[in-house]
Amino acid sequence: MSKRETYEAKCEQLLLPITEKFGVEIYDVEYVKEGSDYYLRAYIDKPEGVNIIDCENVSRALSEALDKEDFIPDAYILEVSSPGLGRTLKRDKHLQKSIGQKVEVKLFKPIDKCKEFAGALESFDEESITIMEENAPRTFNRAEIALIRLAIDF
User: Fold this and answer.
1) Are strands 114-124 and 77-81 parallel, antiparallel or unpaired?
2) What pTM does this model have?
């Protein structure tokens, strides 16, 4: 397990009882370096959507737990927020909740000179993801997908 994966897993363990206490769920946790700064981001959600109070409550409690455990030696910025409307679908549980919804798929390499596709998420398994694109299914190998997220229609 990489340092990033270890930090994310430990943070998720600390976060679980906190999210249960405040009636929200963990959507994702990520530890990333952007420029010269490290960020520990916790994304939380609930069916009716999270608000600033939810984020503040979880942030304060998580900050205390992280200070107590002190397992990340680098300086980092803690952020707690909603995954947003155009949320990235990283895990199978995210994909499962999004079946039937419109998604955008971005590939590492183009297929038929195109790297971006959109359609309703039909199905997925360990190897592939299928969307319904203009009444025709299109299946992608998961290893070819750089990003899949909910589409935002205005």
Assistant:
1) unpaired
2) 0.84
Quick: pLDDT tens for 128-140. 999 998 889 999 9
Bridge partners for 104 per DSSP: 118, 149
- Separation between Cα atoms, residue 59 and residue 112, nearest integer Å: 45
Exposure class string for 37-54: b at 16+ Cβ within 10 A, else e? ebebbbbbbeeeebeeeb
Output the CA–CA distances (angstroms, integers) from residue 138 to 110, 129, 131, 132, in the order listed: 14, 8, 5, 6
Q: Which tens digits make up the pLDDT trace of 86-131?
A: 899 999 999 999 999 999 999 999 998 999 999 999 999 999 999 9
CB 134 within 8 A of CB 102: no
For the chain, report the end-to-end CA distance as a whole number of angstroms: 40
User: Is-contact 105 145, C-beta < 8 A?
Assistant: yes
Residue 112: the pLDDT is: 87
| Contact (Cβ atoms closer than 8 angstroms) between residue 63 and residue 126 | no
CA angle 62, 8, 130 (to 5 degrees): 120
Closest to 94 measured CA to CA, from 10, 138, 28, 5: 28
